[in-house]
Amino acid sequence: MSIDSLPVPEARRDDALDRFVAVIPAGGVGTRLWPLSRAAAPKFLHDLTGSGSTLIRATYDRLSPLAKGRFLVVTGQAHRAAVCRQIPELDSADLVLESEPKDSAAAIGLAAAILHRRNPATIMGSFAADQVISPDDVFQAAVLEAIHTAASGDRGKIVTIGIQPTHPSTGFGYIRGGQELDVDGAPSAREVVEFVEKPSLEVAEKYLASGEYLWNAGMFVAPVALMLDHLAANQPALHAGLTEIAAAWDTPQRDEVAARVWPGLPKIAIDYAVAEPAAAAGDVAVVPGAFRWDDVGDFAAIGRLNSAREGDAVTVMGEGARVFTEDASGIVVSDTKRVIALIGIEDVVIVDTPDALLVTTKEHAQRVKGAVDALKASGETDVL
Amino acid sequence: MSIDSLPVPEARRDDALDRFVAVIPAGGVGTRLWPLSRAAAPKFLHDLTGSGSTLIRATYDRLSPLAKGRFLVVTGQAHRAAVCRQIPELDSADLVLESEPKDSAAAIGLAAAILHRRNPATIMGSFAADQVISPDDVFQAAVLEAIHTAASGDRGKIVTIGIQPTHPSTGFGYIRGGQELDVDGAPSAREVVEFVEKPSLEVAEKYLASGEYLWNAGMFVAPVALMLDHLAANQPALHAGLTEIAAAWDTPQRDEVAARVWPGLPKIAIDYAVAEPAAAAGDVAVVPGAFRWDDVGDFAAIGRLNSAREGDAVTVMGEGARVFTEDASGIVVSDTKRVIALIGIEDVVIVDTPDALLVTTKEHAQRVKGAVDALKASGETDVL
C-alpha cells in the first residue's frame, strides 16, 4: 500500500501531512553491541540487518514518503561527517549537532524549539535512528494515523506509536491504552491512560494477557507547540535554555549561544519531561503499530534479524567474512577479514573487530554493557 | 640433583656419556594448536608454558648438561633462522636442514648416518623439540640410565624412555616392558616386549591397571651403528639413500647429493622403520621416566600447563594480553594486543592471532586438526 493510496480525506491530509517534519535523534552508542558499536561508530551507523543500509539510512528512507525531504537529524558533532555520508540529502539546516550528549529531552526539545521558530504549526515526528522496522508501508500507515491524531482538536495531541507486544518483555516500558478516539484518518487512535516503567516478568505477563498494553518504542508525533507547552510547564529551565538556543539557531549567533547555554542544560529523558506529565493531563494518544519492530538491544537481536543461511546454524554478519564452523551454532559478526574457526560450541556470540574481540553467548548478550563498564573503569577506553 | 652428583661409576660414565650426541628433530607443525602453531611458526617455536622459553630452547637447555654442546638439530630449511635465534650456540655443523619433510625415519636416520660418519661409536639420543618435561633433573637421570643401557653389551641397545601413564590415554602408543636388565648405572632398565599402537579406551584402561605399560613418547637413545643396522635390514632403500647423503654431508657435494637423493626417499615413521622390528629382534630396552611429560597435543594441554591466576578461572597466555572476563572459564591465547572480553561462557578455548581466530571448547580441542584440514581443502592456506 503506497502513501498515495491511503484512505485519507484530501483536505485533512494536505493540512496535517504538509506540516510534518521527521526528527531523527541519532544519539545512543549502543553499548550492548560493543565492540561493533562504540563511541566512534555507534549502532545507527551499522548495517545490523544485512540489508545493505545502515540503521540511520533505513530510518531516513522509511520516513521519506511522509516527510518528503523535511528532516531534522539530531546527533553528536563527532558524527556529522558519517551522518552526511549516510544521508547526503541533508543540508546544514537539517542537522542539529550536539557538542555533548544531554539526554532525549534536550535533544528532542531543541528540535521542537527550532522547528517552532521556523513554523509554529509544525507537527514533528521523532523516530530513533537505530531501530529496525518492517514492513515500511505498515509503519507509514501508523505514522500517518499519528499525524492526523496529532493535528486533531484544538491543541492537537502528543501521539505515541505503541508496539503490539509479542512476548512479556521486561526490557521495555509499556503504554496502557484507553478509550478509542474519534479522529478522521486515524481509526485506531486511542487515548493513553498511563505510561508504565519496565515491569517484572510477572507483571509483563499480565500486561500481555490483558491486551491493553503496548510497548513504548519512544516514537511519537506531536505539534511542536504542544510539546513546548508541556516542556515549559514541567522543565521550565530546560525550556528557557532551549528557547534561547533556538532563537539564535538560524542566525550568526548560533555557535556562541549554543556553546554558552547547552552545557548547563539538565539531562532528562523526554518520557519524564514531557510524555508522562502530558499523559496525566490527557494530552497523549496512542496509535498501535502492527509492524515488526526491534530495537536491536543486544547481539541476540542480531541473530533474530539475520537468519542463518540454509543448513547452517551460525549467523554470519560482515562483508568478506571468512568463517568456518563445525558443530557450532550462534552468531559471528566479523568486522575484519580474519579467518574465524568455530568448533563444537553452541549459541556462541563472537564479535571480531580490529582492536577488540567479544566472546559470549546469546543468553548472556545483555551483559555486554557490564563488560563495557568494566573496561571503562579499568581505563581501556581506547576500544570503547 | 645435578648431573655431577648422579651415582654413576666414573669409568662407564666417561665412556658412554662422552659418546653421547643429542639429536633434536624439530619438525611437526602442531596442527592441533592452530592458529597459534602453523607452518611458518610451528609449535616448537612457541613458549607454550609461560616459562619465557620456546619449547625448542627448553629442550636444548634440558639436554645441555648431558650433551655438553654436542647437538644435531634436524629441521626444515624454512626454520633455520628461527632455530638459530633460539639456539645461537649451534654452528652450521650442528644443523640438518630438510628441503621437504620426509617423516621421522628419514630425519632421524640421516642424523644417525651423519653422526656415524663423524664417529661410528656415537650414541645418539633423539628428543622431539616440542614436548614439555619437568623437572629437568629427573629427566636427565632417566636419559643417563638410557645412555648406559644403550652402551651395554656387545652391540648396545636401542633404549626408549617410557612415560609412566597417568590416565588411560587413547592418544599415545604404549610400550610393554618385560624383564629387568642388569645394566651398571641403569637400575630401572627393562627389556621391551612390544610396542603397541594407540589403543581403545577399554584396552588403555587394562594397560593402565596392569602396570606393565608405559607411554611411548618417541624418545630414544641408541648407538648410531645399531640404529643403522636395523634401518638397513628393514628399509634398505632408505638406508642406502641416507648413507649416500651422509657420505657427502661434510663435503662440498652436500647440496648436490641431498638435492638429488632426499626428495626420492620413502616417508615412514621411525617406529615402523626401526623401533618395532628392533624390539622383535630383542634389541630394544626401556627406561621408565618418572618426570612429568606433556606433548602439548592440543589447547586443553595449554590449560593444564598454564594454570589460571589465583581466583581466576581463565588461563591467559600471551605477552601484553588484555583479557576481561565475567563468569567465564577456559583458556585464552592472545597473539595480538586486542582487548578480548569473555562473558558468561565456560571451558572455552580462544586463540587470537593477527589473521585467524579459533573459538572452541576444551572438550573439542582435539578437533582443531579437522578444521585445519577443512581450511586447507577450501584453499584458505594463507592462514595455515
Automatic annotation (TrEMBL), chains A, B:
Source organism of this protein record: Sinomonas terricola
Top-level taxon of origin: Bacteria
InterPro entries recorded: ManC/GMP-like_b-helix, Mannose-6P_isomerase_type2, NTP_transferase_dom, Nucleotide-diphossugar_trans
Name this protein carries in UniProt: Sugar phosphate nucleotidyltransferase
Ranges where the Nucleotidyl transferase domain occurs: 22-306
Pfam families per the UniProt record, alphabetical: ManC_GMP_beta-helix (PF22640), NTP_transferase (PF00483)
MannoseP isomerase/GMP-like beta-helix domain residues: 327-375
